[in-house]
Write a sequence for this structure.
């Protein structure tokens, strides 16, 4: 039972969310270690509760999905009632940690939990509203984790424009990633009446829009540098990361030619593999800058 509860949290699916949280907490100022650890666990509990609740509301659609039909709630290993109890328990534990470390972080957590709940839960069920679906996903997985991370070293007094510029690539990457995921869920969503952007406009257009978002996100640092918003010296990092994008781009091209579940799976495996390497390089670079003042 405990194993199924852990699998219901789908930790492997929110690695990018944790990365955005970490980026926000370390990018501008190093936080106290104890505060970082407590808020990290609070954020992890909140995110886990979101994924469990999503499975509760999507259990019928997940049963029609070849990949998601094995999830604990869809397969029946966890009953809907127990899924709700698990999600609520995780939220309560999250709030306890937030109150312990800093009650001023509570509004951010409430917005995070509220938006992600509205994404899956009726009556809003924003995942069924084309364009809104991937926009909410980009904000919920990109912007809000970054903002919560900013609250760890208590640096929410940073200018709004700087926050927006920094978070924009994160939002675009996660919005594009959501569309790619929706391409894989196309058949199940269409059968169960989930009118996502991909269901409304087709898989081919979905892949094209996602590719445009990925390309724009990758281009933004160079645009910032051209306008004097980013030191040209930092662009070296992006040239170092460029070779890692080649295998992913090749699989994206294959997906564009054949937007099938198999192509989605191949792209996901490559993106996970090379994305982990890219994130390790990124974190190493940030820590080098922070510790040496380079």
């Amino acid at each position: 039972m405990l194993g199924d509860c852990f699998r219901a949290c789908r930790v492997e699916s929110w690695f990018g969310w944790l990365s955005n949280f970490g980026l926000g907490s370390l990018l501008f100022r190093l936080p106290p270690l104890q505060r970082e650890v407590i808020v990290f666990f609070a954020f992890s509990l909140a995110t886990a509760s979101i994924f469990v609740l999503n499975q509760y509301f999507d259990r019928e659609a997940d049963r029609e999905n070849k990949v998601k039909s094995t999830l604990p709630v869809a397969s029946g290993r966890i009953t809907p009632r127990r899924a709700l109890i698990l999600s609520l328990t995780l939220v309560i534990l999250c709030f306890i940690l937030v109150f312990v470390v800093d009650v001023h972080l509570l509004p951010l957590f409430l917005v995070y939990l509220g938006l992600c709940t509205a994404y899956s839960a009726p009556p809003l069920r924003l995942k069924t509203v084309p364009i809104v679906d991937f926009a909410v996903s980009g904000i919920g997985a990109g912007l809000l984790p970054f903002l919560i991370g900013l609250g760890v070293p208590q640096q929410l007094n940073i200018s709004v424009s700087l926050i927006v510029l920094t978070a924009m690539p994160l939002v675009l990457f996660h919005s594009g990633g959501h569309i790619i995921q929706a391409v894989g869920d196309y058949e199940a969503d269409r059968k169960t009446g989930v009118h996502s952007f991909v269901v409304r406009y087709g898989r081919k257009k979905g892949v094209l829009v996602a590719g445009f978002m990925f390309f724009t996100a990758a281009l933004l640092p160079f645009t910032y540098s051209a306008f004097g918003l980013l030191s040209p010296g930092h662009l070296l990092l992006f040239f170092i990361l460029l070779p890692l994008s080649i295998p992913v781009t090749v699989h994206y091209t294959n997906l564009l030619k054949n937007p099938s579940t198999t192509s989605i799976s191949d792209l996901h495996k490559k993106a996970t593999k090379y994305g982990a390497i890219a994130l390790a390089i990124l974190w190493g670079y940030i820590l080098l800058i922070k510790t040496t003042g380079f």
